[in-house]
Amino acid sequence: MRLAPASRTPSIRAAETAHRTAPTPADSDPGPEQQPTRRRFAGVATMIGSGLSNQTGAAIGSHAFPVIGPVGVVAVRQYVAALVLLAVGRPRLRSFTWWQWRPVVGLAVVFGTMNLSLYSAIDRIGLGLAVTLEFLGPLCIALAGSRRRVDACCALVAAAAVVTLMRPRPSADYLGMGLGLLAAVCWASYILLNRTVGRRVPGAQGSAAAAGISALMFLPVGIAVAVHQPPTVSAAAYAIVAGVLSSAVPYLADLFTLRRVPAQAFGLFMSVNPVLAALVGWVGLGQGLGWMEWISVGAIVAANALSILTRRG
């Protein structure tokens, strides 16, 4: 999510197999009809890689939970995100006015809270369910304010799926589910604040400044974790890899993708992230879901996909 995702905003993503011994100029210089197709294929491939990278990073980071906890992993992730975004955005902090600083600081707080609540939820209820609940944030933003009947139906389907996921049962971890919903609220806030920051601060300077502030906020947290729960080499490596795969790679991939695929297609593929998270959690962490959970995840994904595919323009 994602400078985020949580934080986290809402993603989608024919290669030619002919081999020739002596390519002609037409082969080496694709025509105008081939170029858009190849660019879209590259964008889709990048989106798939970005989604898998994001969820794989979270899964790898969870291996460090027993040593440094979700707080320690999130602290490292914030540091990595700050390094990447500051290098790309290069914010001119001295030129910021208070009118610009206010949403930037708010974005920094939401960014850190979103990742902390998500990783804490992953620790308690598993990757698939945590990411599915977090995804309700951008889904609610997409459906809010719409007067279309199809969107009202999508909202009802998503609400029914959430009720099913959070139904009372002996194994239910309501604190973990609550943390997942908190991550959803933070992701929705992240989207709205990002829009404000984008209007008030040029380029990626606002996001970069927010990532830097968030990293500074987590600096004492990281020091406290290192003192009271000294990380092993493997735990530190897991956390760093999580930061790279879940922050650096998705952010840079999104910059590449948004230039090659329509915004509607990007939003559509974002809805597949809960499924990717469930699959990565199942294959990589052994976190299997019951058939009711799979149906609920599929319903939430389908609600978002239907809402996007039926929009015009």
TrEMBL record:
Keyword Transmembrane helix carried by entry: yes
Q: Spell out where the chain crosses the membrane.
A: 67-89, 101-119, 125-143, 174-193, 205-227, 233-253, 265-285, 291-309
Q: Where is the EamA domain?
A: 175-307
The record, for Pfam families, names: EamA
Keyword hit for Transmembrane: yes
InterPro entries per record: AA-Vitamin_Transporters, EamA_dom, EmrE-like
Q: How does it sit in the membrane?
A: Multi-pass membrane protein
Q: Give a GO cellular-component term.
A: membrane
Location in the cell reads:
Membrane
Residues of the region (Disordered) are 1-37
List the keywords (alphabetical). Membrane, Transmembrane, Transmembrane helix
What does the similarity note say?
Answer: Belongs to the EamA transporter family.
| Descriptive protein name | Membrane protein
